[in-house]
Amino acid sequence: MKNTLLILTMLLSVVSCKNEAKQDRVEESIEENLTTISGEFLYMGESAVLSTGKEVYKVTIDEKMKELDASVKTFKKSEIDFVPVTIKGIITPKEKDAEGWPFEVTIKEVVSVSPPSEENNTITIKSE
């Protein structure tokens, strides 16, 4: 009986830790059914995406998205740079037969825009 209780307690601890880690970048907001999402934003041509590290969202191209794009341009060094952002939006699943990312987010509010980290993400290949 003690072993069963110990195993059950350990199992609940592990499950609660997993759920806590998954919720670190996407936060539900009760007001107006908005979801707060922190991730890296990129807009090129006719496509915009927001990547959280665990999920990639197609971003609806509208006036709010263009407002966000104008804000991130000051931090971009090249056209293909992702910029860290936090937004509030409405998440909808893609249409059944549509191609692309499984979810789309329509931005309702730009919460913050941050400069990209200065980490050196360059891969150097040496030939001998």
Automatic annotation (TrEMBL):
It comes from the Bacteria. This is NlpE C-terminal OB domain-containing protein. It comes from Sungkyunkwania multivorans. The lineage of its organism: Bacteria, Pseudomonadati, Bacteroidota, Flavobacteriia, Flavobacteriales.
